[in-house]
Amino acid sequence: MTDNPTPPTLVEHITASFERLTATEKRAARALLDNYPMAALGTAAGFASEAGVSAPTVLRLVDKLGFSGYADFQARLREELEARLQSPLQRSGSGPRESESEAHFLHRYAAQACENVMNTVRRLPATEIEAVGALLMDERRRVYLLGGRFSAALAKSFHAHLHAVRGNVQDISGQSAAWPEYLLDMRSRDVLVVFDFRRYQKDVIGFAEDASGRGATVVLFTDQWRSPAAKVAGHVLSARIDTHSRWDSAVAPLLLVEVITALVTDHRWDSIQARIKQLEGLQTQLQRHPE
Hints:
Layout: H1 10-17, H2 23-34, H3 44-51, H4 55-64, H5 70-84, H6 105-123, H7 126-137, E1 143-147, H8 152-165, E2 169-171, H9 180-184, E3 191-195, H10 202-213, E4 217-222, E5 235-238, H11 251-267, H12 269-288
Parallel strand pairs: 1-2, 1-3, 3-4, 4-5
């Protein structure tokens, strides 16, 4: 790993700066995070109007974030907008063709994955992990899990572990045309866990918006640039996904899934232990049946 942590994205920088902002500056910052980065791609006056603050407040926010002016701030926004929309065709890779004098691709890739984990942990408040864990421990709440084309694997892994330790957990799978069947039964105490990473999926975002509209609490696992689904999420868990490849990494998001699974299991082990014993008994019973 490198000695210096990867520089924060603008989203991470804004989040880390919240404590030193005034109330009106926080309102502008929240408006930007809720509609990132589109809210601030127009004029400063337009951003101020959308956030319900004055234009000078927006300019003070930009100054506190360390930018020389609104144009400098917008240049950074556009740079990150480009990054969050990149496909594998547009990303630079540094695969096995590097010179032999450099570290092997395996070691460089592993070092980047470790750095992703540490940067994720540094910038993610532990209180968010605890809050999500508390939601998932509450068996009065039904839990639904949804992922995209690649992130569905994370949703399925999380579903398998959660379903082993509690009831009322559903993996939303299949074609998006069938997803409204899950919305039909969704209620205000329910939790929707969404996985959405860059090149964000409109159907996943739309489902999160509809679930929020029905009163469900949305928990979003996303990357450092944040899916647009963050606008309706009660909790946002951002993880670093950088790699020495044209493909994004799922190592840091998977770590967060494992941490929350462990947290839920450890906090409710007495009741979970009994459930797992029953589950293993039923599995043993099923294996005795002749084929």
